[in-house]
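agent> fetching stored inputs for the heme C docking request
agent> found them:
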Amino acid sequence: MKDQEFRNKVKRIYLGVTLFFGLLVIGAGALIYKLAYPSFLSFDDVKQIETYREVEDLDKIENGIHLATGFKDDVGLQTVIVSCTPCHSAKLVTQNRANKEGWVSIIRWMQETQNLWDLGKNESVIVNYLAKNYAPEEKGRRVNLEDIEWYDLEK
Ligand code: HEC
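agent> prediction call returned; pasting tokens
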């Protein structure tokens, strides 16, 4: 009788140990699978799709504006994007206004102080694009008022 009880006990312990190691193996398997395929059991799939869409839209131009950078669409756009956005935002460029000499001097300043490389043949393409699309606004100030009928303030 005692012998039987002992055997049952051993069986139960054996079953428990087997179950424990079984779960351990399954858990380790899932972990390794997760390491190999990081998307396994993660819930940010939606985010990944959105990131992909943004990349897809990089060339999109709407109403004459290149959406990803804000640059105006014109001859030389791609050259300007490639040359002028690696270090800073395109906004820094588009919020400035200058004529050809002005743009050349901004470029020289960056070459002398900010490690901007020699732009070679692209420089004239870039300067033409900038001077045409980001020229100084001639009517920056409102036009002077003319032909005004002044009147005396009553005392
Ligand atoms: C090698 C890096 C680099 C590249 C490439 C570069 N810039 Fe810059 N640029 C800078 C740095 C650095 C500044 C200063 C940023 C700041 O002040 O925060 C700057 C500032 C400017 C400014 C503002 C100047 C001012 O007076 O405030 C303009 C405009 C500009 N860059 C235009 C351009 C244009 C146009 C191109 C393409 C031909 C270009 N950048 C390419 C590094 C670069």
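agent> quick read of the result: Residues 95 and 134 are 8 Å apart (CA to CA).
agent> awaiting further instructions
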